[in-house]
Structure formats: C-alpha cells, structure tokens
Input
Amino acid sequence: MHPACPVRGVSNQRDAASNIWAALAPLLAGQPRVRLSKDAGKSYPQKHERNLTEALPSVPAAVRIFGKDGTCAAIFLDFDSSVGGQDWVQADVRAVQTWLRSVGARWIEDYSPNGGRHVYVPLAQRVTFSAARDLVEALGTRYRTLDKTPHQNLLHGCMRTPGSPHKRGGYQELAMSLSMAYDIVRRPNSATVWTAMTNDLAAEIKAVRALRLQGTFSPATSEAPVPEQPAGRMSRTMQVLAQTGLYDTNRYATDSDARQAVLVGAAAAGLELVDVERRMLQGIWPGLASFYARYAARHRLPALRRDWMNALTYLSKKPVKADGKDHVRRSPTSQPITQAVGLKNSASISNPDAEHRFIRTWRSALRIREVNYQQSRTGMARRMVLRALGEAAHMTASRFVEFGVRSIAVATGLDHTTVGLHLRELRAEKDPLVTLVEEARGTKGDLYMLTVSEEVKAAAEDASWQKGKVHALRPVFRELGLPAAFVYESLEHSPGLSTTEIVSATRLSRSAVHEALEILAAWNLISRNAGRVWSVVAATSLQHLAERLGILEAVAAQVQRYRTDRIIWREWLAKNVSTVAELLSPDDDYPWELFEGPPDDWSLPDLAFGRTG
Output
C-alpha cells in the first residue's frame, strides 16, 4: 500500500533530488530527451530540448513521454491543483489508487510544492500513442483534475518526473521511498495488467472514441485552409497525420487505414521507401511509426515494405489525370519551397558579374554597420530583413529587389506587418543600406535598391569578401531562435571559432551566444573539439531537422494565409482599378504562389470596407 504524502513539501536537498532523478527519469521517459523551462516553468519549448542524462537540470525539466516509434514506456497521470484545488486533487488521487490496485497495477507517485500530484504507471510492453491517449482520456471522464493533454500530443507531450526542480522552488517529491519506486520501474506492469486496465475502462474508451467521431477533426497545425495540392508534394493533411498520429476517424476507421493513406500520399509525391523508413527511424514521423508498434520490432520494417508495395499497386491502377500528366514528383530529394526567392527580371541587368561584386561589397558594408543595431530582438530582426534582401539580390543578380512584404515575411519568419515596419525604419536611417526606389502599386511590390554610403564604401571595398552564401532565416531557426541563426552562420563562414570570437563575429551578448551554442549543440548542429573551439556538424541536415521539428508545416500555413490575402487583393483590384490594364493582367509567368501582395499602406481592413483611391 502506498503511504500518504503531505499536502505540501519543498525539498531543499539537491543531492536527494539528484539521486531520484538519476534513478527514475531515464526509465520513465519514452525516449532519452528532456525539455528545459527557461521561463520558470511556464513553458517547455522544443528548442530547449536536450539529451536526457542522469545529471539533474538546474531548471524545471520535463521528459518526453513518447519515443521516436510513437510509443510510451509509462502512463503519466498529472493531477492539476489549479482545476479544483488541492482537496479535489487528493480525492482524485485516492480514487485512482483504488482503481490501480483493483486491476493489479503498481505505480509511482510524487507531488509538487503547489499541491499538484503525478502518478506514473510503468509498462513492461510499450503501448502506442493512440492506445495510451484512449486510456488517459477515458480516465479523464472519471477524474476531474486529471490533465489529459500530455498524452494528447505525440510530438510535444512531456512531464516533470520525480526529482525535477519546480518553478516555485524545491523539487518533485516522491510519495514513497526511492527503493520502492526504483523496484516498480525496474519491474514494470505486465501486458496482463494493461489488458485489465483497458477492459475495465472499455465503456469510457468507447465513449471518448465516439466523441471524437462527432467532433470535427482539426489538428493544431491546420489553422489555415488546406490549399489545392501542387504536384510533387505530400498534402499537409498527410504530413500532419504522419507526424502526430491524429486522423479523422470519420474518414479512416482504423490505424491500418490511416497508415496506408500516408504511404499512398508519400508514394504519389515521389518519395521512395527509404525516405519513409528514414523519417520513421529518425523520429520525423512518429505518428506513422506508432501505427506499426503493434508488431514485434523485427517485423515492423517488413510490414512497412508490404504496405508500400500495396500503395504502389494502388497508384499503378489509378487513372491518369485529364491533362495526361501523372503529377508525381520525379526527384525524391526535392522539397517544398519554404523560403522566398527573387523575382525574375526585377530590374534591368547589364552586367551580372559586376552586380554580384557590388552585392558582396554591400554584404561587407552590412557586417560593418551591424554593430549599430541593438542586441534586442528588434535589432536582430532588422539584420535578418537585410539578409533576406541580400539573398534576393544574389538570386536575381541585381542590386534592385522587388519584393512584397509577405515574401520577406516568409523568408524571415516574421509577420508581414512587422516586416513593413522594419523596412520603413531601415530606409529612414542615416546612410541607409537600402533605398526605396518605387513604391508598390497593384501587383508589384516595393522596389528597393541596395546601397553603400560613402562613409563605409572605402572600408567595405577594402574588406575581404565573405565566403559562402548569405541566408535569410532558414526554417529550422524559426524554432531555435535568431541568436542561434547568427551563431550558426558565423561558424559556417569561419569554422573553428572560440566562444569569445563568436561573440565578436555575431555582435551578440555573451549570454545570448552561450545559450545559442547550448541549443545548437543539443541538436547536434555544432560540436566543440579538444581545443575548445566550435565547428558545424556537417552530417546534421538543417532541412531534415526542420522537418523533424514540424516547422515546415508552420511555413506552409503562413504561405497559405498570404495566398488568401493575395486572392482578396486581386479581387479588390479587379473591382476598383479597372482603368490600369497592367494591374489586372500581369505576365503569365508571374510566380503568384511566391510573391507580391497588398502594398503596405492598403491593409486588409481597408479592402474589407471597400476603400478606393
């Protein structure tokens, strides 16, 4: 019988907490990864995820519940005192103890300084995301204070385990001896106990499944309307399904149906079987992996190959489109375009080589002038906007750049209104690096020219050109942060820098550089050698990591949102500016899916109220 625990208690014995963490956290976690909270327990962002070690973190830390295969090693029950108060939490915990005892289960229990309680049920046989979610949601119908959300998110589900620091000070305290808890986690509950748990909850599980059938399926990443799918890409719906394991049960009756739909979508998009296997094994598609967890480990890949052949057979029988094209991507390595690129013929280019030389001199001027920008987020954002313009200039081989603010927003990860503000401030500076040549009109964006003032021209021309490309914000750094982007860029251009040299190269504060280095190292993007200098890990792909972190979905949602803006804008033009033919009939090859948008001074509210003039 588990002993009762005090209502409140704060451990000041870090050594004891360290022993508890080292003994239990690695065995309870679904995979050896932990997320740290740098804001006193308010959030556990993905960018602060680290390898899970036996060393106790100095800040609140939550282990990942699900593994790369989409399964969990324990059921995590979080009873939240903010819902019904401590008395209700204690009542719910006593009730769940009675239930666990009735089905023959053994459990570990801890409590927080704020009165919350955690119950962990270790499992000898890992269970799938969908099975664990069903059980926890079913328990949620019985116990009001049970927070179901940790088990409802395959990619981000995490929870503090015994020994973790707490946001109010102190640590997660065990409600039993460490020796008892360690024995339970080393001898977890058998498959027979799991069956008893699910059988006892059969009615509740059936009810929560029926409730999901009644509701409209809307995963968190599907905030924007799903666009008509272009050739050569998996649909966003299938990508979300593969990542999260969540699907519309009105459309797919079983996990088997859902996984087959993912494979058909992958094959239709031109992926190869090896691409799908890699995404499953690397944890990019844990949702799809969870659908195969029912098989023994040695049988999972053979089952995947069998389903893949069925998908290919299905596609071979599918009728060809009316236009005679099969719309299947031919290159399995091609990826969705997630960054804006330059417009063709945005300005007359007489000598591309001379333009590229000028742009490289402009980049030198940018490095000289960057010291003037604050180390705040605003300053870093303006530096990134300038990089986006530099990248566009290189792509078009011209110092003239014609971009809508929405294109730059996609390239920098900012909101388009924020981009417009930064551009106005940049062109208003003394000796600006960009000059507005022509304001936007109709379907044409603002025309900017990269400029180098006389004050820095000599120094910029004398400075050696920086090797490599200039990048706007690459997708992965939307999650890892702007400081990490600048630190990574500095190591790309100059491998083997010390921390002090990185601070000098990036113009960032030492604390910001230290945190960025920690984030980059945690995701194996950089490494430190025996000489205490940092270098980029070439084997780690930024693209693959962005896909793993689910960032490409956020980019796709932003692009779709701006596509909708663009449709509204064109309709408004058609009704109100019919006297200017150029605005209504742009060239047929104009890349609508990537560029332009409403000018800065005509906002969507203006369009909604029919502004003219």
About this structure: Residues 1-11, 216-232, 320-349, 579-613 have pLDDT under 50 and may be disordered. The radius of gyration is 28 Å. DSSP finds 24 helices and 14 strands in the chain.
